[in-house]
Amino acid sequence: MKLWRSWVVAQNDLDVFAHKKYSLYSLVALPAVLSVGLPVMLWLLIQRNNASALEVEVLLNAFAFIFIVLPSLLPTILASYSFVGEKLDRSLEPLLSTPATDGELLLGKGLAAFLPSLLATYLGAGVFVVLADQLTGARVGFAYFPNAELEAILMVAAPLACIFSVEVNVMISSLVSDLRAAQQLGVLVLVPIGGLYVLAETNFLSLSGVSLLVVSAFLAALDLLLFFLGRGTFRREKILTEWK
Amino acid sequence: MIETQGLTKRFGDLTAVNSVTLGVGEGEVFGLLGPNGAGKTTTMRMLSCLVSKSEGMATVGGYDIGRASDAEKIRGLIGVLPESAGLYEDLSARKNVEYYGKIHGVAQNRRDANIERLLKRLGLWDQRDTAVGSFSKGTKQKVAIARALVHDPKVVFLDEPTANLDPESSKTIRDVILELKRDGRTVFFNTHNLDEAQRVCDRVGIIKGRLLAVDSPARLGNLERHRRTAFQLERLDGDTVAAVKRARGGGVEARGDTLYVDVEDPLRDNPEIVQVLTKAGGRVVYVTDLSSGLEAAYLRLVGESR
Question: Across-strand partners of B39?
């Protein structure tokens, strides 16, 4: 596998995405709303309900999980376009007739969805940390973020969740012929990740080093499995002859 | 450069391409003619390693299309223009072409030189930084041709390269095909356009599921003995028509001031008919060979295969 060729594919897809302003708006809007909305919600809880420092800390801890959910949601916007979009634009046939292998194409398209999604997640996390500390610092008594758990989420779990979502979405994109179907099916990736978030919010799962290690190991195993599954299910002929 | 032996493709119960055997030499321009659904695109896709074969064998540049390890090598030495240009509409002409140069691993100096040469040759250099979405169909097709050629492929596959294009764009593309031939490249193209095939192809194959004939356009045309010539007269009257009917026996039809006559050998028959017309007092204004030999051969072969 020639990595430089995957990077060429990724660069081209990034260039194409950069011209799709509605995708860009979606990519920016979701992290912006969550990163601003969640700290503001906490501030309102403090102001109106007089939430205690402990309650605020528990919520801050749970909200940090959103940075596992976010990088798994954002790729659905871009990765669902990967092969379906190319098919709709009829640019897939010339691309498939180049020497790029299935693995190189999948990796390139995956990178193109992964990088902006992770970047948007990090920018959102930056805004979240600053706002959360500003709005809750007085009640908690110290700047809650950054802490080791959030760093582990951003450095390990978020990229793994993003890879998981990218792989699922790129794979779906190569198997279905309709952009809406790709996006709708792609959202299914949120079921396991969303489940984690619900467990965190309901205090069944707390944000600790051990729980993060388990979640990360699970995601890493899934990522590896999906890469090979994606290569195995990628069929140039099916894409060209069975899509209408 | 291209060899096929009994090449067959089935989609379920449908046999799209049935036991095609042909050879295309290095530097040859080969045209595959056939009606819609005749298997032209499927043949091209098999040779480009885009779809698998069901039976038979084929090699491109000495590599076997049926061997997975050869597919990447074949794709590296071919340039493909599919039926639809399939460009990235938001990207410029230069970026569309450059992407394919990069993906084929062409070094930057050579890539830049090739892009400039091709875009200039196709009259696109001044529009190189314009998004292709704003281009006409003909201009998009030219960008797609440049994209197919940016890595100097040894074999070029073109699927209906001039379909629905204006005459000027069609001529540019025909000229490029002839230039590729002069450079020693092998060109394999699908077309409905018999006139175009006659102008640029060294040999043509007529396909309708199976390959019905392969030869040079001239030789295929010469095999046809049933052709039709139109003789337009200043004024056509009943006596003149009767004179020609007497001389020819049959196959004569009058419409307005034009007489349509079935001929076997235009070179022999047309002067004789002009002589009869003149003797009968007619004044011949134009003589037009209505059906090209290739067209007649094509229609007969495709018709017989029904």
Answer: none
